[in-house]
Amino acid sequence: MNKKTRVLVKISWEALQWERENGIDPQFLQTLAQDIQEIHESGIEIALVLWGWNIFRGVAGAANGMNRTAADYMGMLATIMNAIAFRDALQTAGCNTYIMSALDIPEVWDRYVQRKAINKLEKWNIVICAGGTWNPYFTTDSWGVLRALELDCDMMIKATKVDWVYDKDPKQFDDAQMIEHASYADVINKDIKVMDHTGITLAKEWNMPLKVVNLYKKWAILRAIRWEKEWTTIS
Protein backbone atom coordinates (compact mmCIF):
# COMPACT_ATOMS: atom_id res chain seq x y z
CA MET A 1 0.00 0.00 0.00
CA ASN A 2 1.34 3.43 -0.91
CA LYS A 3 1.99 5.81 1.96
CA LYS A 4 -0.65 8.54 2.14
CA THR A 5 0.46 12.15 2.02
CA ARG A 6 0.56 13.58 5.52
CA VAL A 7 0.87 17.31 6.17
CA LEU A 8 0.94 19.62 9.13
CA VAL A 9 -0.93 22.87 8.56
CA LYS A 10 -0.17 25.81 10.83
CA ILE A 11 -3.14 28.17 10.75
CA SER A 12 -2.53 31.81 11.53
CA TRP A 13 -4.53 33.69 14.13
CA GLU A 14 -5.86 36.04 11.41
CA ALA A 15 -7.85 33.15 9.92
CA LEU A 16 -9.73 32.50 13.13
CA GLN A 17 -10.25 36.17 13.89
CA TRP A 18 -11.19 37.16 10.31
CA GLU A 19 -12.51 40.75 10.42
CA ARG A 20 -12.99 40.95 14.17
CA GLU A 21 -10.72 42.97 16.43
CA ASN A 22 -9.95 39.83 18.40
CA GLY A 23 -11.51 36.49 19.31
CA ILE A 24 -13.01 34.00 16.84
CA ASP A 25 -15.31 34.51 13.86
CA PRO A 26 -17.63 31.45 13.94
CA GLN A 27 -18.82 31.87 10.35
CA PHE A 28 -15.34 31.96 8.83
CA LEU A 29 -14.22 29.18 11.16
CA GLN A 30 -16.95 26.95 9.72
CA THR A 31 -15.94 27.89 6.15
CA LEU A 32 -12.33 27.02 6.94
CA ALA A 33 -13.39 23.73 8.55
CA GLN A 34 -15.30 22.81 5.40
CA ASP A 35 -12.21 23.49 3.29
CA ILE A 36 -10.07 21.30 5.56
CA GLN A 37 -12.73 18.58 5.45
CA GLU A 38 -12.69 18.57 1.63
CA ILE A 39 -8.88 18.35 1.57
CA HIS A 40 -9.00 15.50 4.08
CA GLU A 41 -11.58 13.65 2.00
CA SER A 42 -9.29 13.91 -1.03
CA GLY A 43 -6.94 11.48 0.72
CA ILE A 44 -4.62 13.73 2.75
CA GLU A 45 -3.78 12.99 6.38
CA ILE A 46 -3.88 16.28 8.28
CA ALA A 47 -2.44 17.52 11.55
CA LEU A 48 -3.11 21.11 12.61
CA VAL A 49 -1.37 23.70 14.76
CA LEU A 50 -3.25 26.89 15.62
CA TRP A 51 -1.71 30.13 16.80
CA GLY A 52 -3.39 31.85 19.77
CA TRP A 53 -2.75 35.56 19.23
CA ASN A 54 -6.35 36.29 18.21
CA ILE A 55 -7.33 35.44 21.79
CA PHE A 56 -4.17 36.50 23.59
CA ARG A 57 -4.23 40.01 22.09
CA GLY A 58 -7.56 40.53 23.85
CA VAL A 59 -5.77 40.25 27.20
CA ALA A 60 -2.39 41.52 26.03
CA GLY A 61 -2.73 44.60 28.21
CA ALA A 62 -2.63 42.38 31.25
CA ALA A 63 0.59 40.85 29.95
CA ASN A 64 2.30 44.22 29.50
CA GLY A 65 5.38 44.09 31.67
CA MET A 66 4.63 40.51 32.64
CA ASN A 67 7.39 37.97 33.00
CA ARG A 68 8.08 36.32 29.62
CA THR A 69 7.48 32.84 30.98
CA ALA A 70 4.07 33.76 32.36
CA ALA A 71 3.09 35.49 29.10
CA ASP A 72 4.15 32.45 27.07
CA TYR A 73 1.98 30.16 29.19
CA MET A 74 -0.97 32.48 28.55
CA GLY A 75 -0.26 32.24 24.82
CA MET A 76 -0.12 28.44 24.92
CA LEU A 77 -3.46 28.33 26.74
CA ALA A 78 -4.89 30.53 23.98
CA THR A 79 -3.90 27.91 21.39
CA ILE A 80 -5.96 25.37 23.35
CA MET A 81 -9.02 27.63 23.27
CA ASN A 82 -8.66 27.94 19.48
CA ALA A 83 -8.25 24.17 19.20
CA ILE A 84 -11.52 23.53 21.07
CA ALA A 85 -13.38 25.95 18.78
CA PHE A 86 -11.89 24.45 15.63
CA ARG A 87 -12.53 20.88 16.75
CA ASP A 88 -16.20 21.77 17.12
CA ALA A 89 -16.26 23.30 13.62
CA LEU A 90 -14.50 20.29 12.08
CA GLN A 91 -16.83 17.83 13.78
CA THR A 92 -19.79 19.83 12.49
CA ALA A 93 -18.25 19.51 9.01
CA GLY A 94 -18.15 15.72 9.45
CA CYS A 95 -14.51 15.14 10.43
CA ASN A 96 -13.40 12.85 13.24
CA THR A 97 -11.13 15.23 15.11
CA TYR A 98 -8.91 14.85 18.17
CA ILE A 99 -7.15 17.49 20.21
CA MET A 100 -3.82 16.35 21.61
CA SER A 101 -2.19 18.81 23.99
CA ALA A 102 1.08 19.04 25.84
CA LEU A 103 -1.03 20.10 28.84
CA ASP A 104 -2.84 17.15 30.39
CA ILE A 105 -6.57 17.72 31.03
CA PRO A 106 -8.12 14.31 30.18
CA GLU A 107 -11.71 15.50 30.58
CA VAL A 108 -11.29 17.80 27.57
CA TRP A 109 -8.59 16.31 25.31
CA ASP A 110 -5.87 13.67 25.04
CA ARG A 111 -2.32 14.19 26.20
CA TYR A 112 0.01 14.55 23.22
CA VAL A 113 1.95 11.34 22.66
CA GLN A 114 3.76 10.93 19.35
CA ARG A 115 2.82 7.30 18.68
CA LYS A 116 -0.80 7.86 19.67
CA ALA A 117 -1.07 10.93 17.43
CA ILE A 118 0.32 8.97 14.45
CA ASN A 119 -2.14 6.17 15.18
CA LYS A 120 -5.03 8.65 15.12
CA LEU A 121 -3.85 10.03 11.77
CA GLU A 122 -3.51 6.54 10.30
CA LYS A 123 -7.06 5.77 11.41
CA TRP A 124 -8.29 8.73 9.39
CA ASN A 125 -8.71 11.35 12.09
CA ILE A 126 -7.64 14.98 11.95
CA VAL A 127 -5.33 15.72 14.87
CA ILE A 128 -5.14 19.23 16.34
CA CYS A 129 -1.92 19.75 18.27
CA ALA A 130 -2.51 22.29 21.05
CA GLY A 131 -0.72 23.82 24.00
CA GLY A 132 2.64 24.31 22.32
CA THR A 133 5.41 22.26 23.85
CA TRP A 134 4.28 23.55 27.25
CA ASN A 135 7.70 25.16 27.52
CA PRO A 136 8.17 28.93 27.31
CA TYR A 137 10.41 30.63 24.73
CA PHE A 138 9.23 28.39 21.88
CA THR A 139 7.20 30.05 19.12
CA THR A 140 4.29 28.39 17.33
CA ASP A 141 6.51 28.17 14.23
CA SER A 142 9.16 26.14 16.05
CA TRP A 143 6.49 24.03 17.71
CA GLY A 144 4.85 23.42 14.32
CA VAL A 145 8.10 22.21 12.76
CA LEU A 146 8.73 19.98 15.77
CA ARG A 147 5.30 18.34 15.48
CA ALA A 148 5.65 17.98 11.70
CA LEU A 149 8.90 16.07 12.23
CA GLU A 150 7.54 13.95 15.07
CA LEU A 151 4.47 12.99 13.04
CA ASP A 152 6.55 12.10 9.96
CA CYS A 153 4.79 14.68 7.80
CA ASP A 154 5.77 15.20 4.17
CA MET A 155 5.67 18.98 4.57
CA MET A 156 4.58 21.82 6.82
CA ILE A 157 2.24 24.43 5.38
CA LYS A 158 2.04 27.85 6.98
CA ALA A 159 -1.42 29.14 6.08
CA THR A 160 -1.59 32.88 6.55
CA LYS A 161 -3.10 36.00 4.98
CA VAL A 162 -0.51 36.66 2.24
CA ASP A 163 0.00 35.05 -1.17
CA TRP A 164 3.78 34.89 -1.04
CA VAL A 165 6.79 35.62 1.11
CA TYR A 166 8.64 38.82 0.22
CA ASP A 167 12.19 39.91 0.89
CA LYS A 168 10.78 42.90 2.79
CA ASP A 169 7.38 44.20 3.85
CA PRO A 170 5.48 45.02 0.60
CA LYS A 171 3.21 47.41 2.52
CA GLN A 172 6.21 49.55 3.40
CA PHE A 173 8.53 49.06 0.43
CA ASP A 174 7.48 49.45 -3.20
CA ASP A 175 10.55 47.51 -4.35
CA ALA A 176 9.72 44.42 -2.27
CA GLN A 177 10.46 41.29 -4.28
CA MET A 178 8.24 38.22 -4.24
CA ILE A 179 10.05 35.01 -3.34
CA GLU A 180 8.89 31.82 -5.04
CA HIS A 181 11.60 29.67 -3.52
CA ALA A 182 14.25 30.23 -0.88
CA SER A 183 16.73 27.95 0.81
CA TYR A 184 16.80 27.59 4.56
CA ALA A 185 20.14 29.43 4.54
CA ASP A 186 18.61 32.33 2.56
CA VAL A 187 15.90 32.77 5.17
CA ILE A 188 18.44 32.84 7.98
CA ASN A 189 21.20 34.88 6.33
CA LYS A 190 18.89 37.43 4.71
CA ASP A 191 16.59 37.54 7.73
CA ILE A 192 13.51 36.89 5.60
CA LYS A 193 10.45 37.28 7.81
CA VAL A 194 8.74 33.94 7.32
CA MET A 195 9.59 31.99 10.46
CA ASP A 196 11.82 32.32 13.49
CA HIS A 197 15.38 31.08 13.16
CA THR A 198 14.89 28.20 15.59
CA GLY A 199 12.10 26.75 13.44
CA ILE A 200 14.00 27.28 10.19
CA THR A 201 17.15 25.70 11.62
CA LEU A 202 15.19 22.66 12.79
CA ALA A 203 13.52 22.30 9.38
CA LYS A 204 16.91 22.64 7.66
CA GLU A 205 18.57 20.01 9.85
CA TRP A 206 15.88 17.43 9.01
CA ASN A 207 15.03 18.66 5.50
CA MET A 208 11.36 19.45 6.20
CA PRO A 209 9.84 21.39 3.24
CA LEU A 210 7.94 24.51 4.29
CA LYS A 211 5.30 26.23 2.19
CA VAL A 212 3.53 29.52 2.76
CA VAL A 213 0.03 29.93 1.29
CA ASN A 214 -2.86 32.40 1.41
CA LEU A 215 -5.48 30.75 3.57
CA TYR A 216 -8.23 32.96 2.19
CA LYS A 217 -7.87 31.48 -1.31
CA LYS A 218 -9.93 28.32 -1.67
CA TRP A 219 -7.84 25.24 -2.47
CA ALA A 220 -4.58 27.09 -1.77
CA ILE A 221 -3.56 24.44 0.76
CA LEU A 222 -4.45 21.59 -1.58
CA ARG A 223 -2.57 23.20 -4.47
CA ALA A 224 0.49 23.52 -2.26
CA ILE A 225 0.25 19.87 -1.26
CA ARG A 226 0.09 18.93 -4.94
CA TRP A 227 3.10 21.14 -5.72
CA GLU A 228 1.08 23.49 -7.89
CA LYS A 229 1.63 27.26 -8.04
CA GLU A 230 0.75 30.16 -5.75
CA TRP A 231 2.96 29.55 -2.79
CA THR A 232 6.46 30.16 -1.48
CA THR A 233 8.57 27.08 -0.77
CA ILE A 234 11.43 26.98 1.74
CA SER A 235 13.60 23.91 1.28
Description:
- With 235 residues, the chain is α/β, with parallel strands linked by helices.
- It contains 10 helices and 11 strands.
- The strands form 2 sheets. The chain has a 9-stranded mixed β-sheet with strand order 4-3-5-2-1-6-10-11-9, with helices on both faces.
- Helix 7 runs parallel beside helix 9.
- The model has no long low-confidence stretch (mean pLDDT 82).
Can you tag this structure with a few keywords?
two-stranded antiparallel sheet; globular; alpha/beta; nine-stranded mixed beta sheet; 235 residues; 41% helix; Carbamate kinase
Structural class: alpha/beta
The number of distinct structural domains comes to: 1
Largest sheet: 9 strands, mixed
CATH topology: Carbamate kinase
Task: Give the overall shape, derived from the CA principal axes.
Answer: globular
Number of helices: 10
CATH class: Alpha Beta
Strand order of the largest sheet: 4-3-5-2-1-6-10-11-9
Unreliable segments of 5+ consecutive residues: none
Write a brief caption for the model.
The chain has helices at residues 13-17, 26-41, 53-56, 60-63, 68-92, 114-122, 140-150, 184-189, 197-206, 220-225; strands spanning 6-11, 45-50, 97-101, 110-111, 126-130, 155-160, 165-166, 178-179, 181-182, 210-214, 232-234. By secondary structure, the chain is α/β, with parallel strands linked by helices.
Topology:
Layout: E1 6-11, H1 13-17, H2 26-41, E2 45-50, H3 53-56, H4 60-63, H5 68-92, E3 97-101, E4 110-111, H6 114-122, E5 126-130, H7 140-150, E6 155-160, E7 165-166, E8 178-179, E9 181-182, H8 184-189, H9 197-206, E10 210-214, H10 220-225, E11 232-234
Parallel strand pairs: 1-2, 1-6, 2-5, 3-4, 3-5, 6-10, 9-11
Antiparallel strand pairs: 7-8, 10-11
